[in-house]
Amino acid sequence: MPASTSLEELIEALRGLPGVGPKAAQRMAYHLLQRNRRGADRLARALDSALHNLHHCNRCNNFTEQEICERCLSTRRDPAQLCIVEMPIDLNSMEQTQAYNGLYYVLMGRLSPLDGIGPTELAFGRLIARATDGVVKEVILATNFTNEGEATAHYLSELLHARDIKVSRIARGLPVGGELEFSDAATVAQALRERRDFD
Amino acid sequence: MSGKQRIDEQRAFVLHLYPYSETSLVVDVFSRDHGRLALLARGARRPRSALRGLLMAFQPLELGWFGAGEVKTLAKAEWIGGMPLLGGRCLLLGYYLNELLVKMLPREDPHGVLFDAYSAALHALALGGADAPELRRFEKTLLKELGYGLTLDREAVTGDQIIAQEQYAFQVERGPVRKVGAGDTANISVLHGKTLLDMIADDYTDPQTRMESKMLMRQLIAHHLGGKPLQSRRVFMELQEL
What we know:
CATH superfamily of the domain at 7-79 in chain B: Nucleic acid-binding proteins
Structural class of chain B: alpha+beta
CATH architecture of the domain at 7-79 in chain B: Beta Barrel
Number of helices of chain B: 6
Structural class of chain A: alpha/beta
Distance between the termini of chain A: 73 Å
Strand content of chain B: 25-35%
Shape of chain B: elongated
Strand order of the largest sheet of chain B: 1-2-3-5-4
Strand order of the largest sheet of chain A: 4-3-5-6
Radius of gyration of chain A: 22 Å
Number of helices of chain A: 8
Number of strands of chain B: 8
Oligomer: heterodimer
Helix content of chain A: 40-55%
Distance between the termini of chain B: 47 Å
Number of strands of chain A: 6
Largest interface: A-B, 29 and 34 residues
């Protein structure tokens, strides 16, 4: 079946989405063209506008349309606390907790030496400049508890400590409502190693 | 290796993970009896996968797999434990060990002795031991086990015993050569006889030994890597500079 080039191009483009293989990409393309042309138009416009208007916030590095995003400008947030997360999606997880009212910095990645991702690639310099603006009193490291996340947290803590900033790390252990019986051994072992005084 | 076979309860470490499709991973592992392998971990990136958080570098695991191709299919993974997680600076040293294995160890070549050395080095790092002796010991075993040889105990030309006070030029493919004068272009490293003797004894208390053995190993490994740069070292250096 000879396909027109625009169609092929569309299918190829859709394959660039995570989790979309050739079959799914075809289905999406035909769906958009046949059954949902208005939706297709909307998608095209939304993509175009996002691509042209979104860039990194000067303060938190998250995506925004302004120079500085709304969250960073908010007067209801505590500018003395800065929480560092790996990805925008992690920021969303933190926000869902409704347990934090400070500001954020999004690294857009993590140290991954074997993949060649180091402090240069992650622009550690920008983060240090942000954290040492004189207003931030505490930096909360909320990178993931993977080896990469831990390595990132370790080096950030060293860099920030050297600049006299209070640094804390989110806690690790059993989940809320967690039962020992049903928890994986690695988690319990680490929870035991990182046990704290009961006061 | 024989055709389609199933391997069970194999002690192994994860060296590196590569995302594969949206939900799976290809895991580069170093196993006790089957050497370095690529295993496909199906669905390991799904949010509720039992493998999530388990397939992590620097943790002793017991793995099972099957398949005949270059990439086998991971069937089972279990956490063995008994070793604290690596933290802080040790993580970067761990990445260095992993990168050496990923770049230097051919696939499906059993290296039991090297596996034990790797495991011992990780344990020692995790328990907060001095890192220089651990790294040098591992590098020594790595070169020896990969068949690159490493002559430390005899002068390469004469076969004479190494003398602690003498200076030697270390030639990559040969070994230590008594340094008589300038003009040796194949020299890659000049060091004291004491360093060589200390390295044989795995004694790294002397700062001069630590420095010279580090430089020697760095040059030997660079030679055997054939110019491939070590990313973990670059990242480590960059972090030290900040």
